[in-house]
Amino acid sequence: MTIHVDPDWWKTLFDDVYLVTDARSVCSPEVTETEVEVFSRLIPIGRSHQILDLCGGHGRHALELSRRGFAHCTVLDYSRCLLRRGAAAAARHRLSVAFVNGDARNIAFPRSCFDHVMVLGNSLGYIPDPQADAEILAEAYRVLKDGGWLLLDVADGASIRKRFSPNAWHEIGGDVVVCRQREQQGDVICAREMVISKESGLIRDRTYCMRLYQPPALAAAATRAGFSRTTIHTDFSPHLGEGDYGCMNHRMIITAQKT
Ligand SMILES: C[S@@+](CC[C@H](N)C(=O)[O-])C[C@H]1O[C@@H](n2cnc3c(N)ncnc32)[C@H](O)[C@@H]1O
Predict the structure, then answer these.
(1) What whole-number distance in Å separates Cα of residue 66 and Cα of residue 159?
(2) Is residue 196 part of a domain?
(3) Which domain range does residue 26 map to?
(4) What is the pLDDT of residues 177-189, one digit of tens each?
(5) Ligand 1: which residues within 6 Å by Cβ?
(6) Mean pLDDT of the chain
(7) Residue 25 is part of a domain; what is its CATH number?
(8) Disulfide: which of 38, 62, 237, 250 matches 159 by Cβ 3.0-4.6 Å?
(9) Which residue is closest in CA terms to ligand 1's atom 27?
């Protein structure tokens, strides 16, 4: 079996259905709180700091940071659908978070305007062009102030390979079943995802892919982008229970500074 993936899949997959298929990870307040607890201990975030949640989706981390008094958070993401969801949640909870549409490879912000750039919840490695992540890291470097911190939170390639399973499925609520078929193609995992409603039938049948990084390789990419003081933290699993959470468990966190 070979799973074929449209290279632009990432431009359309992150929508309302994604918020259902990945709800266990991205719509769980407990998971997001755990993650923010961990991230905010690893870099020196101050309440007056400008924080960019790059590829921030519906802004769950920025919203949680804002709730904790970090008042200057900006979310940048390609998905207008997720940004709209985030902006609505911010308005509902009276939180001041900016939601900006854009491509992380070419960020429409001037150089040196953020104290921290965070790329969270496994948001690298989606664009098949191997240069894409280097471009994202270069942009993170450019928009950071001198002394600012980068925090990357992505799947730990070594750990994911060790636990690789070609099939997985889980239920969401009483109605939706998410089935995933996976294949390793070099350092890339390709997947076919079928989402089925027991009541109304097929909701989605799509393929996607993700480049897996070994921890030292991603740290080296950060160094090539200009960062220093790079630290790798492995074995970060926000889900405590058993289960196949795809690449949302067994993550690594890399922190690095623009010095
Ligand atoms: C797995 S989701 C995680 C979202 C968010 N960080 C979270 O943890 O909830 C990955 C996100 O990266 C975004 N993304 C991927 N590549 C991007 C790019 N080149 N520019 C902007 N956003 C991108 C997607 O739109 C999606 O919202």
Answers:
(1) 32
(2) no
(3) 11-156+213-257
(4) 999 999 999 999 9
(5) 10, 14, 26, 55-57, 60, 77-79, 82, 103-105, 120-123, 126-127
(6) 95
(7) 3.40.50.150
(8) 250
(9) 57
